[in-house]
Design goal:
Shape: elongated
Radius of gyration: 19 Å
Bound molecules: NADP nicotinamide-adenine-dinucleotide phosphate
Largest sheet: 6 strands, parallel
Structural class: alpha/beta
Order of helices and strands: HEEHEHEEHEEEHEHEEH
Oligomer: single chain
Distance between the termini: 17 Å
Length: 247
Amino acid sequence: MLGGTSEAAALARRLAHLDGLETIVSFAGRTEAPELPETGARIETRIGGFGGTAAMASYLAENAIDIIVDATHPFATGISANAVEAAAVAGIPSLRLDRPPWTPGPGDNWRIVDDEGEAAALLPAGARAFLALGAQRVAAFDSRQDVFRVARVVDRPPASPLAGPHLVVTGRGPFDLASELALLREHAITHIVARNSGGEGARAKLLAARELCLPVIMIRRPPAPHAAETTVASVDDAMRAILRLTS
Ligand code: NAP
């Protein structure tokens, strides 16, 4: 299983109780302390890139893997493409666990954009923007030094990822409504910039935006480069598909 999401962690916890199946959960190693499943007789972890598609296919063969489960983040499209191609080379099924994107509801004020550059251009001068994007994605907002930017990252980087007026705050989901409301109020945020990751752990900022009537600039998902053989939207459905595809 390619992990790095809370859904992958939840699926790993379920698989740990399944007789007759051994699971290896793979992490890229981007965060200092990934949410690791409890390892034991049925769960192992590995950390770090494979070295591309061919190397992943070799890994699958060498470890006699029967199925690859891609439970990575919806914006991690490189690894998802590699998973589909490597599964085809290794001749094993591929399963994608893809959490549904968020959709705006009554009371929401969303502008939907394609990328960070478009999001940055939409911010009005003098805004105070909350960037819920991660450290790797905020550089595009350096063009907007007329905006005070509050960037949330998982691990504080050694050097700030932004220039000009800004603040870096750290936090790891899941987040709740009360703490998101407190954060937005504390920094007098006027606009939220988010990626449409979907899932429950990061939804609270959108509920907080609704409650405070704040506009959200939502970056749409990149198109999935290749479709896995089977795609499911929930951990329950992933369990059922794994049982079916490995029996
Ligand atoms: P990416 O751009 O799709 O992948 C870049 C490279 O990182 C891959 O080619 C692969 O290297 C390595 N890699 C990525 N995920 C891996 C995994 N689970 N196990 C082993 N190697 C992996 O990915 P990304 O956007 O940097 O995301 C990296 C990880 O962070 C993913 O596991 C994802 O679930 C998690 N994550 C990403 C985001 C996000 O916003 N993108 C948010 C939360 C969590 P090789 O080619 O060398 O194999």
